[in-house]
Predict the 3D structure of the following.
Amino acid sequence: MIINALEGNRFNILRKFRQAGCTTIAAAYSLWLCCFKSHQTIVILSVGDTESTEVLDRIKIMYDELPEWIKPKSTTINAHNLKLENNSHIKSRPSGKQSGRGLSGSLLIIDEAAFIEHIDTIWAAVYPIISTGGRAFVLSTVNGIGNWYYDTWTRAVDGANAFNPIQIGWQDHPEYNRVEGFEWLYKEMEQRDPPMDIDEWEPTTRANISHKKWLQEYECEFLGTGDTFIEGQILQALTENINDNFYRKYNNRMYVWKDPDPNSTYFMAVDVALGRGRDYSAFQIIDLYSGEQVAEFYSNTTPINEFARICFDEGNYYNLCPVLVERNTIGNNLLDYLFDQLEYENVWFDEKQQMGLQITAKNRDTILVEMEEAIRMSEVKINSKRTVMELNTFIISQNGKVKADTGQNDDLVMSLALSIYGGRRYREDNPEIVKFNPSKDKMPPMPLKQFRIMTTGGQKEEDITWVIK
């Protein structure tokens, strides 16, 4: 799979688990190119000098093992270079802030890119050299978020750059998971001292390292610098249940999964920003019957008055739903425009009968705890990849503060939390809205009531479920 990708694409980026053997594959591919094609220059960039010499040592061992008739003679061999008589050349270099200067080649391989300092500067320096026909192969295990490798990978997955994303999991490796055709290997592993049982590798490894380390090292999860506020396995389940079946409105700023049902009640929660390219204005619309996220807005370029108009239009569209606005700072401006000028009829009021909700240090904790509980108890169904991505970078920092990780945003998370907080209180005031499992029927099932009766046979309750069958 990796070789086919390298042959079929100019730019490839690989996301791998620890000890996957991908660096060895890249080394073998480099040697193959140099042996069978002339005038090739492969540059391999590693984290440090030790790593760079180790990579070239692997290549030299492979070269030495080749039969004489198949390999061109070498003209230069040292710790960082292997040059052949067909004018093909492999250069293995340690990374450094100026590493990109003076490098030229037909193929650039960046090994463990997520761990290389100043990789963005190095890439900016070396890219002009390969932009006119050269190729690049970036490979790494993950190392948190907010770095060049993370940004390049996520943009590749979204189709926002020219990189072809490749991901391999530990499940694909025959030394970690039972794969058909490798029975000979498993017999050999059982005869080792001590013997190894392939079926015990996963549970043993999981037991010996933390869950966070397992997710990062073997599940290739991009984790923040602190512990995620939502537990890792729940985040994984949310990721697996993302719904890509939506349509867009307002120049891709709003995603819609479901149009309003006249028989449903909806709730909108709004987090406001200036709309000047910094923080994002966001809102979430939740179906209070099913708990499902039906629409989402997200933009950092929408002015407040235009955002208020969008909230007005969508609130009316979703059955004149209650609209909760965070009134901290500029939230008051949106409330004034929405209530006084547009005269929206269903703005949410707090317990002091003030429009919107003032978020304080005290109630912020309550709002976030209620969101975590609702997600954990499956009271809310999150469809949006954008929201799930923010939840993945919403962390508990080392000083105990719950916040977006460095360089990340939390506007979708906070609007989601507000929709859950406000929606719960709206349900309390409107008991006719029955909460139910969104995976079941659209309308809530009739509750089964138990009637107390007195009998002489010891029976205390009458089963009347037959009445509604």
Observations:
- Residues 436-469 have pLDDT under 50 and may be disordered.
- DSSP finds 14 helices and 19 strands in the chain.
- The CA atoms of residues 10 and 131 lie 10 Å apart.
- The radius of gyration is 29 Å.
